[in-house]
Design a protein that fits this description.
There is one protein chain. The chain is of the alpha+beta class. The chain folds into two domains: 219 residues, Hypothetical protein, domain 2 (Endonuclease III, domain 1); 131 residues, Alpha-Beta Complex (Nucleoside Triphosphate Pyrophosphohydrolase), CATH 3.90.79. 43% of the residues lie in helices and 14% in strands. The chain contains 17 helices and eight strands. The strands form two sheets. Strands 1, 4, 5, 6 and 7 form a five-stranded mixed sheet that branches. The chain has a three-stranded antiparallel sheet with strand order 3-2-8, with no helix packed on it. Bound molecules: iron/sulfur cluster. Iron/sulfur cluster (SF4) binds next to helix 9, helix 12 and helix 13.
């Protein structure tokens, strides 16, 4: 079985490979950008972002020379913004340490910000045909089913075990194609639900030797040991109207949406009423010395789901007669920006802010 794996997989790939805009290239820059976009993002969504990214940043220097805010703006809506910050940081590192030439050694690639074992293996095999196997969720699923491996894929033992097996199996002649093939096979044939063999056993070239299919356990593999706890967070945003100006805050903490802009935010352990919000110490400090704000209404957003967090957000629209003294004297470099209300588009924002802003522009929109 181990000997037949690579030829069978590659024969399947030669007939079924997906046509993607980052395929059929050996350019490590393009491969790198596509791989980072595809982490946590579906191909259908990532496609348009990849094309836009390549149009604006066709080469490494154009990305390294851009501002981080511009990179984040182009990334807006894709989520997991640390990916964009790391792309930018890695481009700068390649520019300064490798004379703008993408490194060719696995360890050098692995040492770039935002690149782990999987992405380094993908880049080095696709661009340079180095025989290092990729190991991601698709690979865990395919190998655990084919070889009947019940080691929980989120355990520490799994990474070593699956990585060893994947590296034993990789084609020495076509390692780049092999890695693309196993990812395609996992994404389109040996899928989490309804794998090919459930629909039509003869359609899967491995059905005769697949342990999971032969024992009727495709639905039980791969095994996971932990359930991820979801954290609930309660966000109260102040959408302020101050003589046709408003206030934005840049997130600087080690948290979701770092370096993106949003309205001043009060986070609490539970959803606050408007009275509780007005009396919150954070709000009192921000608005000290101002007249009491006039309420223009509130918008409660549908629950905003991230991978491990549920965000319950309400936006309060308040009108103020003057810029609060706390922000009037805000020196350059503080996280608050006072700007004309119609200039928000120039700042990168998270998807939640985007959804709210489009709701305000188009109140009938359901999103
Ligand atoms: S037989 Fe089914 S479970 Fe096994 S590799 Fe093929 S699609 Fe996956």
């Amino acid at each position: 079985m181990k000997q037949r794996f690579a030829p069978t997989l590659l024969a399947w790939y030669d007939t079924h490979k997906r046509s993607l805009p980052w395929r059929d290239t050996r350019d490590p820059y393009r491969i790198w950008i596509s791989e980072i976009i595809l982490q946590q993002t579906r191909v259908a969504q990532g496609w348009a972002y990849f094309l836009r990214f390549m149009e604006r940043f066709p080469d490494l220097d154009s990305l390294a020379n851009a501002s981080e805010e511009e990179v984040l703006r182009l990334w807006q809506g894709l989520g997991y913004y640390s990916r964009a910050r790391n792309l930018h940081a890695a481009a700068k590192k390649i520019q300064s340490e490798h004379k703008s030439l993408f490194p060719t050694q696995f360890e050098q690639v692995r040492n770039l910000p935002g690149i782990g074992d999987y992405t380094a293996a993908a880049i080095c095999s696709f661009a340079y045909d180095q025989p290092t196997a990729v190991v991601d969720g698709n690979v865990y699923r395919v190998l655990s089913r084919l070889f009947g491996i019940h080691t929980p894929i989120d355990s520490t033992a799994a990474k070593k075990e699956f990585s060893k097996l994947a590296n034993e199996l990789i084609s020495q002649e076509r390692p780049g194609d092999h890695n693309q093939a196993i990812m395609d096979f996992g994404a389109t044939a040996c899928t989490p639900q309804n794998p090919l063999c459930v629909q039509s056993p003869s359609a899967c070239p491995f059905a005769q030797v697949c342990q999971a299919y032969q024992t009727g356990s495709t639905g039980l593999l791969p095994v996971k040991e932990k359930k991820t706890a979801i954290r609930h967070r309660y966000f109260h945003y102040l959408h302020l109207h101050i003589q046709e100006k408003t206030v934005l805050h840049k997130r600087t903490e080690e948290d979701i949406w770092r370096h993106l802009y949003e309205f001043p935010l009060v986070e609490a352990e539970k959803a606050l009423t408007e009275e509780e919000l007005r009396a919150h110490p954070q709000v009192l400090a921000w608005l000290a010395g101002c007249q009491t704000p006039r309420s223009l209404g509130k918008t409660t957003m549908p629950k905003h789901q991230l991978s491990h967090q549920s965000i319950h957000a309400t936006f309060y629209e308040w009108e103020l007669n003057e810029i609060p003294p706390a922000w009037q004297s805000a020196a350059e470099g503080t996280p608050f920006v006072i700007l004309p209300e119609d200039q928000g588009d120039t700042y990168p924002m998270c998807r939640l802010m985007e959804l709210y802003r489009s709701k305000k522009q188009n109140p009938r929109s359901s999103s």
